[in-house]
Amino acid sequence: MTTPKTELLKPGLRLLFIGFNPSPTSAQTGWNYAGPNNRFYRILHESGLTDRLYAPSESRQLFDKYDYGFTNLVLRPTPRASDVTAQEYREGATRLRTTLETYQPTFACFVGKGVYQQYARKQKVSWGFQPADPSIHTRLFVAPGTSGLVRMKLAEQVAIYRQLAEAVCR
């Protein structure tokens, strides 16, 4: 499988954002979290992870300026995460573990509780930092999804991401 245009990786990233899979819009444009109703960039700014509000078309600048990378559990674009198969999730979890071992980002943010549940094969997951995984050197953080379909209030989402910002921006 070819690497999607939305995947931005390099060794030693400060923070790696991990989504379920690219939306068709993101896959087409190459811009991460590009859906018109996605709150990703607003949440990053309001939580303190960025110094200004970026647009999806500027996602590459987060990679260059902040050392923030992007990947997905599953690389195949679909309109909804529910379109991804159980086998794709299993294969994606294996590939993601290899990605974390290879690139060793300082922090990894799972953008959506379900993303981490599929990766770790756990049902019970809380927001925030997860127990250390001795096989990787990355601190794992679970944050709410940012899609317009998420029913959580923006202020609640920002508060959770602020916990990550406090650790990342020290």
TrEMBL record:
InterPro entries: MUG/TDG, Uracil-DNA_glycosylase-like, Uracil-DNA_glycosylase-like_sf. The keyword DNA damage applies. GO terms for molecular function: hydrolase activity, acting on glycosyl bonds. This is Mismatch-specific DNA-glycosylase. It comes from Alicyclobacillus fastidiosus. It comes from the Bacteria. Its EC number is 3.2.2.-. It is an enzyme of class 3 (hydrolase).
